[in-house]
Amino acid sequence: MREFFDDRFPPGEQIPRHMEIVLSAEPGPFGEAVRMTVNGVRTGAPLTDNSWSETGYRWHDTLHLAHAVCLGWSPVFRGLAGIKRRSDPRIDHVEDGGRAAVADEAIGVGSVLPRPHPRLVRAPAARGEPPAHRARNDLRPRSI
Fold it and tell me: What is the pTM of this model?
């Protein structure tokens, strides 16, 4: 039998061992919004791409679900689903708190963000040219 990180916590603080997830896309005032329900309960807020262009960001909660299901870890999903481990204040603070959630978001968002606009990436100095002599507005596109 597989052991889960949260086995010693009450069922209301465990990542569900069985989940039925429904992600539905609906039109919204800022483009398509994705709503998530877990076991019939609406979870979290509707997400949009929150961008000038379509990026797919609205679907990124699926990555938090993947972390929860495959790793048994997702402080973001715990927060959205209301299953933080509050019975142990230290675990709640360290493993389900803000810093852990930022790490979870960074892993998830890093995989769905578009490449930066080429004008926002500084081109390297030309061969033999010291960086101090490079023109400040030299924003030539370069591959990443």
Answer: 0.72
The one-digit pLDDT tens for each residue of the chain (144 residues) are: 478 889 999 999 999 999 999 999 999 999 999 999 999 999 999 999 998 888 888 998 999 999 999 888 999 999 999 999 999 999 999 999 999 999 999 887 766 555 655 555 555 555 665 555 444 444 455 555
Quote the radius of gyration of the chain (alpha carbons, Å). Answer: 21
Contact 6, 14 (CB under 8 A): yes
Cβ neighbours of residue 60 closer than 8 Å, sequence gap 6 or more: 47, 108, 109, 111, 112
Report the 10 Å Cβ neighbour count for 38. 20
Number of helical H runs and strand E runs in the chain: 4, 3
